[in-house]
Amino acid sequence: MNIVKRNDAFLPSILDEMFKPDWFGGTESRLAPMDISETDSAFALAVELPGRKKEDIKVTVDKGVLTLATEANKEKIEEGVRYTKREITHYAYKRSFSLPDSVDIEKIGVSYEAGILRLDMPKKAELVQPKRTFEVR
């Protein structure tokens, strides 16, 4: 499974400090933390998406690319309340991965519980080879 990796050591830390949130009045965008693991028979992916509803999460596979997306708007404005800053009204997250050919797309399992989105992606049966140990002579 391939993802684009960010090289934090590329830019000096002074630039990181200059472009922190509020430098231009905006907010910092971060990717949700995730774990990707592999066994002999499957890949597993777990993504932290706290506070989301199952119906707000969209998981798709198109042409070998797995895409995770969620978006929510909270446009509720309380009467008599003046906000000096309002950042929690909109949340959007989208991340894509190139799946290896060994993933059996028809058998991908998706669940969401306690703020964690989990994907179980079994490998195709014909590509799963049993582990063998050989005697050294």
Automatic annotation (TrEMBL):
Domain of life: Bacteria
Protein name as catalogued: SHSP domain-containing protein
Organism classification: Bacteria, Pseudomonadati, Bacteroidota, Flavobacteriia, Flavobacteriales
Domain SHSP: 25-137
Cited CDD domains: ACD_sHsps-like
InterPro entries the record matches: A-crystallin/Hsp20_dom, HSP20-like_chaperone, Small_HSP
Family, similarity comment: Belongs to the small heat shock protein (HSP20) family.
